[in-house]
Design a protein that fits this description.
Keywords: Membrane, Transmembrane, Transmembrane helix. This is DUF5009 domain-containing protein. There is one protein chain. The protein is mainly alpha-helical. It has helices at 13-30, 56-76, 82-105, 119-128, 135-152, 155-175, 192-200, 221-238, 244-265, 278-301, 309-316, 318-334, 347-356, 362-386; strands at residues 2-4, 336-338, 344-346, 390-392.
């Protein structure tokens, strides 16, 4: 990562707000005070279906696609710069994937176990059981594939590619028999994606909460790339030299089509975030297009910018905010204190139980803790933004 204190280039403010709001929401839902007390909209759907929380990650990948179009359109139009652009895309993708692995590995060594386990043995154990896929890893892969396709393909080809990926994924998931099961299915542990993850990644490197399947698994990355490609089409459209009203109108047309197509496909290929189903891609891309259209109209066209600064601050350092949030959560869990009963608990739980739980109902206490967490990071991001510190990944 590189820190820059120079004057940033002009940016599309609504896109930064969209990205910042998405990352702030991601931090909010990832850090409740108690996982046993969460308001329903702040939880993922148990399996099929879509809650507001399920929109956060696809929105971010959709934004990645829009950003690709804005950042790489100039190089796309100059074939002599394609090699340099692909090199830059590759390096950034590897950085994102690497940050995801660091987040999964952290802490590599548990200092309170020095006397019990050799340090080198601890490191070996951490690597032998690290989750290979994850949020940042999927972002890196989607950025890499969508970026190269954007550089090399025309918009019509990109649209056909995205549609083909969704159809191919649908056919694989619903028609290919799963080895050891004997039939195609969409259940958590027995679908084709889960089988492929166990075969290639092995159970040691899957999502620890399940150990048998991974919500950011390998096969599900295929439709996730389609999410990014749809974002590039949105960004390409927004860069066209035309009247803003016409741009926004067609964004809403695209939104309506995506939502409707997703709901129709949901009838026989259910909307499912964990599987990243094709219906989920269309439905969330449609909602993302509508949300972006509203923000663009309000902020960049009508000029309503008064309350946007906190979200812009999150938006320009989005990956930094997400990464540091994950690192800090794990760091606080390493610091142990004794509570009033003499029980040893981590610093995060101590703060929650002492400063928040006594004053609110269980659901509200959990929510207040998550909001405090977001506000703390908002203060940090605001400071960095005012100092013009943008950490580029």
């Amino acid at each position: 990562m590189q820190a820059s204190a120079s004057e940033p280039k002009p940016r599309l403010l609504s896109l930064d707000v969209f990205r910042g709001a998405t990352v702030a929401a991601m931090i909010l839902v990832n850090n409740p005070g108690s996982w046993s007390n969460i308001y329903a909209p702040l939880e993922h759907a148990k399996w099929n279906g879509c809650t507001p929380t399920d929109l956060i990650f696809p929105f971010f990948l959709f934004i990645v696609g829009i950003s690709i179009a804005y950042a790489l359109s100039g190089k796309k139009s100059r074939p002599e710069e394609h090699s340099a652009a692909i090199k830059s895309i590759t390096i950034r993708s590897l950085k994102l994937f690497g940050l995801g692995l660091i987040l999964a590995l952290f802490p590599i060594v548990y200092f309170d176990k020095f006397g019990e386990v050799d340090v080198w043995d601890q490191i070996v154990m951490r690597f032998s059981g690290v989750r290979i896929m994850g949020v940042l890893q999927r972002i890196g892969i989607v950025f890499f594939i969508a970026g190269i396709i954007f550089i090399k393909a025309k918009p019509k080809t990109i649209a056909w590619t995205a549609g083909s990926l969704l159809v191919i994924y649908y056919l694989l998931m619903t028609f290919v028999p799963v080895p050891g099961v004997g039939y195609a299915n969409l259940e958590p542990e027995t679908n084709l994606g889960a089988w492929i993850d166990r075969l290639i990644l092995t159970t040691d490197h899957l999502w620890k909460q399940s150990k048998t399947w991974d919500p950011e698994g390998l096969l599900g990355t295929i439709p996730a790339v389609a999410t990014g490609l749809l974002g590039t089409l949105c960004g390409t459209w927004m860069k066209k030299p035309m009247d803003n009203a016409l741009k926004i109108t067609w964004l809403f047309v695209f939104a309506a089509f995506g939502i409707a197509a997703g709901l129709v496909w949901d009838l026989f290929f259910p909307i499912n975030k964990s599987l990243w189903t094709s219906s989920f891609v269309l439905y969330t891309a449609g909602l993302g297009s509508a949300f972006f259209a509203v923000l663009y109209w309000l902020i960049d066209v009508q000029g309503y910018k008064r309350y946007t600064t906190p979200f812009v601050a999150f938006g320009v350092n989005a990956i930094t905010a997400f990464f540091l949030s994950g690192i800090l959560v794990k760091t606080l869990s390493l610091i142990k204190l004794k509570d009033a009963a003499g029980k040893l608990i981590n610093l995060q739980s101590y703060f929650y139980n002492t400063c928040i739980v006594p004053f609110f109902s269980p659901l509200n206490a959990s929510l207040v803790y998550a909001i405090v967490w977001v506000l703390c990071f908002m203060a940090l991001m605001m400071y960095m933004y005012k100092k013009k510190i943008i950490i580029k990944v």
